[in-house]
Amino acid sequence: MFWKFDLHTTSHIDTLLEKEDVTLTEVMDEDDVLQECKAQNHKLVDFLLRAQCMEDLVTFITQEPSADVEEKVKYKYPNISCELLTSDVSQINDRLGEDEMLLMKLYGFLKNDPPLNPLLASFFSKVLSILIGRKPEQIVNFLRKRDDFVDLMIKHIGTSAIMDLLLRMLTCIEPQQLRHDVLNWLNEEKVIQRLVDMVQPSQDEDRHSNASQSLCEIIRLSRDQMFQVQGCSEPDPLLATLEKQETVEQLLSNIFEKDKNESAIVSVIQILLTLFETRRPAFEGHMECPPGMSHPSFSVNHSILEAVRPRLKDFHQLLLEPPKKNVLKTTWGVLDPPVGNTRLNVVRLVASLLQCNTHSINAELINLNTLGVILDMYFKYIWNNFLHIQVEICTAMILAMPPAPAEPQPDGEPGGTVESALIRHLFQACQLIQRIVEAWHSNEKEQSEGGRRRGYMGHLTRIANSIVHNSDKGPNGPQIQSLMSELPTEDRENWEAFISGQLADTNKRNTVDLAFSDYQMQQMTSNFIEQFGFNDEEFADQDDVVDIPFDRISDINFSLNTNESANIALFEARCKEKIQQFEDAGSDEEDIWNEKDVTFAPEAQRRPSSGSTDSEESTDSEDEDSKRDPFEPCNPASDDRMEVDTGWSPVWTASFDDVPMETGSGAAAASTAPGVETGWADFSSFSPKCLFFSPKDPLRCNSPVAMETSMETIDPLGLAAKSPECDGWLGADVSSCSEQRSITETVINGSMKETVSLTVDAKTETAVFKRSLTDVCPPPRLDRNSVSSEQAVNGPA
């Protein structure tokens, strides 16, 4: 309970603020000033809200520190000032957003000459961004009154923090109507045209990159906003301006009508690639058109394609004559010239144009033989996988796309669908089939001479598999097969030998290598489904399959057809063999666990065997066994008999009679009536030695508790002494050797006394077992008639 001792530590700031002449820098030197401000310490907040303190905080983040200050503490106070102003304390936000003098001082930072200090620019952008989010109406109204705001933003677009501030104005304004007003205001200020003018060779690379990134983000944010706001009927004004044909033409003229500049060219291509992106759904997995949106919204604007088509020859020339690049030395050789970022992005642009599948664009690419130039670069630059993947994408789209609709005829009727001109160009003019086979054989020759496998072989394998697959199952299959048949006989035979030989072997080897990795990844891939778990000889059936990478999961039948009737019948039969069923004896059947008197009777007379020292271990005479039925009970008066299988020759039957019980209170326990049939019991683990005791050996007890044992011998005929005619406890002749013996054993465990007695009558061949429990408070006393165990067994001395 810490509140008893008042362990709360008072911040040193409270003590410091009590001074009348305390300064802002002294407060900012305290280590916990930010924590106290975010915790809204009243004294600290009131101090910071002073007019002079607020002005000093804004000054710290808008003016360059003195050059005389040590470098490691040069930006200490600007950093702390920025954190205090952006601590999201409502009183500070209100004071800063409503005081126009402070806003003018903050706005004055944009009037500095470029380039801006990047660290101070980040402080300025962070403070103004949080004000836009918390006080949007006040800040927007203030900025709209500044006529030079957009000019200053474009002027400093080379600073990344200013670009972020421009994008935050498009994303952080929550009221929909206010956001739309901001978009219209920026569009009226021609922010798109001004950003486009920044992407030209006369500007530096930072302006190229940031202006291009700003335009790309405006495109994506505007399109995403169209999907999220379904009820918005008005189009985004900034996006509409960007998609205009004259805007795209201005972009292209900036890079082609002036000196070639790689940074400007790449930046413009990045903007075009963003415009060619199909408009993504608002969330992943949504493939259908959202409500209120038409399917044409997912296609590329036709005006963009019309602006790009006349410039295709200029992009084609860039592939042949890129901007000058220095010779590049690599570990495997010299690249003169290297591929370069310009040509790589031009190939990406061609792949995006092919995806649009427009007849005019396709026809222009065929006339220029752009695909042939791209294939030449593919086989020349054998280690540039960035280029290889783009060429693979181009060939895959050409083979899999349906033919592009033809242009409308002059009479107004739409043109009919014809065969794909790109596929014909790819097979005839570009000679794709011959070049694949030639490159494969050339690679094998180099490898056989100890050379290294070429870097494009993996992509070449996938291109060949795509050709085979589309010729069999693709939408252009008949056309591809027809073009195959038109090949020269030698080329056609080489191709057929290639797909049945090297290509099939490569697919088989790749599938075997990837099978276990697919299993480890636990993915239901086509390789895993097709090949995992097969033996080596079972792959012979896969020699003709060259389209392994294509999915066949839909052909798998997961249903299990099993017949359980045979197993169920076998299980029930085994249960009947192993489990002995209990017979229902009726409603008067008694519990088999009730305590009863047990009578053990031998069914055959025992006689001593010669040479035996222990009469209890002797066996019955064969003559006596022949005179008596072993299944006949010895006591006909007893109905409750249990067959006891002890595993030795004399079979005994048990008779359950009432057993008198004594409890601690002296009440006798009720017993069940005799004569009720009970279930069978198995005494296979019962040893006969526990019933008979040799007169020669004393009784032994291994019990750890205190006990007293007494044995009373009833000898009415005076046969206590061992008779020469009766060698044993029960002689062979019952008529001449008849006696009754009783064995009593008492065990004391705490306050309970348990007495167990066994009485055996040799004449009637019965044994009576009795057990009783008594509560003994005083120590138990020995019975005067009891004798020691040794005297009871061996007789008196």
UniProtKB/TrEMBL annotation:
Segments crossing the lipid bilayer: none
Chain intervals for the UniProt region annotation (Disordered): 598-644
One GO molecular-function entry: protein phosphatase binding
This protein's GO CC annotations: cytosol; nucleus
Regions of compositional bias (Acidic residues) in chain numbering: 614-624
InterPro entries, sorted: ARM-type_fold, SAPS
Top-level taxon in the UniProt lineage: Eukaryota
Membership in a protein family: Belongs to the SAPS family.
Protein name: Protein phosphatase 6, regulatory subunit 3
Species annotation: Xiphophorus maculatus (Southern platyfish)
